[in-house]
Fold:
Amino acid sequence: MNETILVIDDEKDIRTALAGILEDEGYQVLFADNGIEGIECARLELPDLILLDIWMPGMDGLEALGQLKKLLPGVTVIMISGHGTIETEVRDT
Structure:
């Protein structure tokens, strides 16, 4: 079975671009367009890796990260953003 990657990002174009790249490499890709949906998807699907946007409306990526780490402490989460700052990137969560 292929490893599963969950992409949580509010921008459809970003989700589509990542899916194309990851699926070409043989990964199964799941999508969520906000933090709440992403947490529920992670709970149900138990992905091997999560790509999580920092800046999203409603529950932002940092808040979602905290909940994901409680729910699935062993899963690696990679934070992604096109709008990050140095302060956000090095913030200890």
User: Anything to note?
Assistant: The helical segments are 12-24, 35-45, 61-71, 86-90.
